[in-house]
Give the backbone structure.
Amino acid sequence: MAIPGLGFACRPHVPLRIPLFPCVSKAIPSVNVSIYVYICIIYIYIYIYICLFVSMHSWTREWTSSMIYFAGDGKVPEWKKLNSKELGISTSKITRPTRKVLNVLRQKGYQVYLVGGCVRDLVLNRTPKDFDIITSAELKEVRRSFSWCEIVGKRFPICHVHIDDAIVEVSSFSTSAGNFKRDLSSSEYGKPIDCEEKDYVRWRNCLQRDFTINGWTLRPLLMFDPYERIVYDYLGGMEDIKRAKVKTVIPPSTSFQEDCGKFYTCSCTNDGHFLAFSKLRYPSLFDEARILRAIRIAARLGFRISRETARFVKNLSGSVSGLDRGRLLMEMNYMLAYGSAEASLRLLWKFGLLEILLPIQAAYLVQNGFRRRDKRSNMLLSLFSNMDKLLAPDRPCHSSLWVGILAFHKALCDQPRDPMVVATFSLTVHNGGDISEAVNIARRITKPHDTSFYELLECRNLDSCALTNEVMDLAASVKRALCKMTNEQAVSLAMAEYPKAPYSDLVFIPLELYLRVGRIFECVKEDTGKKSVSKQGSKIDYESLALGTLPEVRYIFARIVFDTVFPLNLDHDHA
């Protein structure tokens, strides 16, 4: 290729090593020095641009290849079609609204599958929290098939089908394919050459869900045809279930974070200690919420997080503070409101996330000498353990319940109380504010309290008047504790005594939730003759509990507190 005006020609291929410039100057001695310098600068810019282009191309190929090849062991996962009966899957666990949506779409000639966590839960013989459906029908066709159906989402639209007061999420293969721009024709993606078209569509969707929509989605990702009774496993998910491990599809060593359009990479030592974040020019598909999702899945299933993924979660724990406050509340509610709160709190503490998300509760654990891998319990964990006994993935509570428990425990930490005061307080909350009745019932309690909790004092045999005053004072303390939990300055001071702890003034409890929690305890007040409506009977109305109906939430709160202070299985040493 000739360069006009310079009197010499060069090959189109530009070497990745800059030639010696004196040689060039000898070849063109007549060129003005300033022009020569200008040409050299242009040459350097061209060279840098080509180097970056080649490096980026090489990095992209290596990165995208690792996304498929590295299933934790460096191998392409084997495609598997498994008989659901042999896996012990019971279709009776599929809810009626989900069945109706599946039947309607199948009768119209479309392919329908259950995907994601619900399939995993069915394999584990657990009741899924919800069911997600994917179909070969276009979203517009899905919407026309049901009387009440809406398409939500702009970037990754799905259908919300309303059936019997329930919402069933339906996505489409065509929408997934439209949002997935990567060329999958290459064999480097692990696609068999002679695969059937339906297999290809299902496999493509698995990859799209893993690496485009969900970012670094945690395995397993399974697809279940309830009519053919076949479970499709394209990414090695069943092997993870057998090993009871939670791990990422992409190698955790490729640790990138995306925060509001700014891209970072994590620098860490060989032993996994976090050093710093640095800006990275290459985009990342990582979502900070995946860290919390790893905790949630491990806690809910009782799985362990693989060593590589655990290091990744710990090193990037600080990145969760960049999440939207509403998203943080949603993720925390998923962890604490569905029957795995105690396990979630233990894992949050183990991986250094609790001091960022709940610094007040983290300070409590530090003050009590609670180690990261501690197997012991305390009053905070016992409260949530007793709450877990009443909840399940398909029987959650409203977020106001667990926030109320956190505030109640904080009040007891600030000022320990007589067990009779705690019992009377919980009974007053339950009956809607009748302190006199609560005092009379509390005085008849003969069960021993758990003396292992420093939040509980020795019984002092208070008279009715003193007991009433103490209950009122405890109610005021709970309200003050709730205010601290929603005050950035108070939250930031929680871990101030521990200089090695990360700074956090994170408050994700919105005003509406704060007011709702306050209403749980507002019935504990001076006897004015006006009482709130209390729950009748002892059977839990889980629909009301999920909606946050006050009588139901108050009843469950009182039951949790009472079972914690006066446990049925209390051994003689504690008594």
